[in-house]
Structure formats: C-alpha cells, structure tokens
Amino acid sequence: xxxxxxxxxxxxxxRAFVDTAPVLEKCLAARAGLGWIGKNSLLLHPQFxxxxxxxxxxxxxxxxxxxxxxxxxxxxxxxxxxxxxAALVQPCCLDARRCLSYLxxxxxxxxxxxxxxRMNQFILGCDLCQDACPYNQNPRLPERSAFQPCxxxxxLDELLSLDETAFQETFAGSSLLxxxxxxxxxxxRLVRHNP
Length: 195
Ligand code: B12
Ligand code: SF4
Ligand code: SF4
What we know:
This protein has helices spanning 2-8, 25-31, 78-82, 100-105, 113-116, 128-131, 156-161, 164-170, 176-179, 181-191, and strands at 14-17, 36-37, 43-44, 56-59, 88-90, 93-94. By secondary structure, the chain is α+β, with helices and mostly antiparallel strands.
C-alpha cells in the first residue's frame, strides 16, 4: 500500500484484506482476470494452479480492468473423484458440512464418525482436491520468507502429549494456535488408526 500511495498520492483511500473480512475473494479474483473458479471451487491460475492465497486492496483509485480468463477445467473431474467425503457435490459446489477442511478447522462439533476413517493423516485442513489437480503438479515454492513452512510434519504422539502451556510455547507465532489444542488432539486421536 505504501508503494501505491507513493505513485497515486496521499489522498488515495485503501484497505487491505486477506481472508479477514466478508469479501467474495474468489469471485473478485476471477472477475479481475487472475484465474477461473475450478471444479474444486478454488481459484485456479494457469501457472500456479490453486496453490495460492488471495488478498485484495479495495481502493477508490480509478484502475483499468483485465479480462477474465477462460475456464481451464474442461472435462476433467479429478478433484470430484478424489474427495474422500464427496463434499464436492457438483462442479464448483462444495457442501462444507462434508468437507474435512471445515470439519477439522471450523466446526465446533466433534467430527462425525462417518468421516473419521476418511481423514487419512489430515489433522487440520485437507488438500486432496488440490493434490489431484493437473494444474497443481509442479508447485512453485514461495520466495518470501513469510510464506515458508514454519515447522516440519507433526508427530502425533508429541501432539497428544502436549498440555496447553506447552502447546502455546511450541506453536507460538503459528496459525495452528487458532485451531486450538482440543481440536488438534481430537483429530490426532481419530487419524491415529488411519493408514
Ligand atoms: C468459508 C471458506 C471456506 C469453507 C467453505 C469453502 C467453500 N468452497 O465454500 C471451508 C472451511 C470448507 C474452506 C476450505 C478451504 N479453504 Co477456504 N475460505 C472460505 C472463505 C473465508 C469464504 C468463502 C465463501 O464461502 N464465500 C462466500 C461464498 C458465497 O462465496 P464463494 O464461495 O466465493 O462463491 C461466490 C463466487 O466465487 C461465485 N462462484 C462460485 N462458484 C462459481 C462458479 C462459477 C463458474 C462462477 C462464474 C462463479 C462462481 O459465486 C459465489 C456467490 O457469489 C474464503 C475467503 C474469502 N473471504 O472469500 C476462503 C478461501 C476460499 N479458502 C481458501 C483455502 C486455501 C481453503 C482450503 C484449501 C484450506 C485447506 N487446505 O484446508 C480449503 C479448500 C476446500 C475447497 N475445496 O474449497 C482460499 C482459496 C484460495 C484459492 N486458490 O481459491 C480462500 C480464498 C482464502 C484466501 N484468502 O486465500 N474454506
Ligand atoms: S478439502 Fe478435502 S474434503 Fe474438502 S472438498 Fe477438498 S478433498 Fe474434499
Ligand atoms: S482437478 Fe480438474 S476439474 Fe478439478 S479443478 Fe483441477 S482441472 Fe478443474
């Protein structure tokens, strides 16, 4: 935003969002020509696939628009086939109540038994409908240090042995704190017996 202010002058009004407000980010990104909404319901870019996070600056600056990109999914349905819980009920349409990402990250209720055996080794979030996508096969690693992974894979026994104090210390600065120890340990107990 500082750079925009340098170019456009101090009177320009702006506000930035990154998954932080009720803004239809995928829809806006598609209309801004950054990609198309794939059948996995995520924004896909021809080069980066869906391995990207969206952020936006809303401003009163008069800017010219790019044209939206054409749909690149074609007849492919790999993401729908790969979803372990059939949460992608039709192309581009996700039933969040069945999605492991919702169940492990957002839901306040215990994970229903019918989904426990389908969690693979995911204790938080799920990327299977992204892993399956042909556009996601050669991911570009982020250069910025802020986007580098801050920790290697979690050890389930270690996670299950943590108390709240140790959890806060171990994951200080990580988004895992948002999930909370109770939720993570619930998932860890469920995936322990999965192959
Ligand atoms: C709620 C939410 C979830 C929910 C529901 C997701 C869903 N697909 O509905 C849950 C918890 C399940 C979830 C999971 C994930 N999420 Co999420 N989530 C959001 C959030 C906060 C809101 C999305 C939303 O429901 N908006 C409200 C509805 C009405 O809008 P919408 O879904 O965008 O649909 C509108 C338009 O897109 C358009 N539209 C929809 N489909 C189509 C199809 C066509 C053809 C057209 C023309 C238009 C169109 O019409 C709709 C109505 O206006 C966004 C951030 C944000 N503020 O947008 C992140 C966001 C979508 N999530 C993101 C990510 C990364 C994930 C996960 C991969 C995380 C993970 N690893 O577990 C999974 C992926 C699951 C999946 N396959 O979608 C990223 C996606 C980046 C990308 N490449 O698109 C976002 C954008 C966050 C970010 N800032 O980067 N998420
Ligand atoms: S994130 Fe996992 S559970 Fe959710 S739609 Fe994608 S594959 Fe299905
Ligand atoms: S897996 Fe196929 S259908 Fe699904 S989002 Fe990727 S290209 Fe589109």
